[in-house]
Amino acid sequence: MESKIIDESKQGEALVREVQKNTFSAGKKMFLESYGCQMNFADSEIVASILIDKGYTTTSDYKEADIIFVNTCAIRENAESKVRQRLYDYKKVKKTNKNLLIGVLGCMAERLKHQFLEQEKLVDMVVGPDAYRDLPNLIAVAEGGQQAINVLLSKEETYADISPVRLDANGVSAFVSIMRGCDNMCSFCVVPFTRGRERSREPETIVKEAREAFENGYREITLLGQNVNSYLWSGGGLKKENLTEEQKANSTTFAELLEMVALIHPELRVRYSTSHPKDMGDDVLHMMAKYENICKYVHLPVQSGNSDVLEKMNRGYTREWYLDRIAAIRRILPDAGISADIITGFCGETEEQHQDTLSLMEDVQYEFAYMFSYSERPKTLAERKYKDDVPAEIKSRRLTEIVDAQRRHSEIRTKQGLGKVYKVLVENVSKKSADMMSGRNSQNTVCVFPKGNLKKGDYVNVLITSCTSGTLIGECV
Ligand code: 5AD
Ligand code: SF4
Question: Among 16, 35, 176, 399, which has the minimal tally of Cβ within 10 Å of its Cβ?
Fold first, then answer.
């Protein structure tokens, strides 16, 4: 199977991750393409699993497909525009292949259901992120010549029992969803509307999936959720605020889940994404310190360095709170890599408030950051309550300043690796040279080193001898 992941969350050009080819038994052919976050990537693996179970096969060529599925992202307007263009391209294929079915999956399906089906007649199926079990029925409806739609959001669905078909590029790193949805209602964000309420997945099913991945040769698991720090499994999936003291004591927290996964095997690395500063407790940091195989890397989106902007964003923390969390990371995990998401030009953002973001970046000096111009999303609190009043050219200038600052900080951070020895998980042959391999250290920085007899999935100690602005280069020791 080949599938393309177009990662909108990366700065600038969308990153296209080509995914390995697998072959499956004969049957109707589907072509599956994913846009957006890692969660979408993981969801596509669930979709593949459900349909392969029903006898479908996959193809890397959309022109020979019987069904095309596009798993979509709605987080910013430009993500949606790209998908829309893609859907128009696919619709053209229908002229030569009358039986072709096209389905839109994921966040845009949730947002634009009627527009896609009725106004634009762009697709045959519209399937929201909680309705993938219904795909075989929906395909049958579409094959019968009717439009098929299921965009119901669920309070319970976690696909806990479905073993994903890994559509990964390297056979070393696997993503495991630990929860779905989001209850935070950040005022700029469309996710609570497209992915519904937050719900946690039963820990035993997570551990089982991670163990199976390890047994199949994977050496790194990334636990995924919109806000992993609020993960809580209490048997019935009850919300924290509704639990009795006894139920709370018997619940599994995110820190405990991390430990359960870390204990599968010392050779299995554990990562997670994404943390929310308001819920990031020291318990998680102490658990990270306790196990060598829990990677020393924290992605802690800040969004803005100004407390008034943060309040308007409904983030639930102040600049001071955020910096206290950074201090806690540095105290408990002195060698951790830290990255963030930053939005520039949010409604009403003044020049001083923008300077506060720059000064916070200066304080923290992130290894890495994903940086975005604010993009107003329909239905969100910000769209209803505030004016998107920072002119495009000012947004763009502020974004450039933020990107420049980050480039400087990445360079400083990378240089700090010179002369150090890192344990690196070998992931791929280097893009630049067939004689070199690449992988990441625990802090998530890419390292490049001579191939020797190394193969994907090995661990190797690398002495760093030189670097580029974001990559460490070294020799095996
Ligand atoms: N405009 C710009 N960036 C956004 N993000 C989420 N919603 C928006 C928006 N409306 C960014 C945030 C979030 C990341 C996944 O995407 O920084 O952390
Ligand atoms: Fe969106 Fe905020 Fe939830 Fe992240 S935590 S998905 S930014 S609402």
Answer: 16
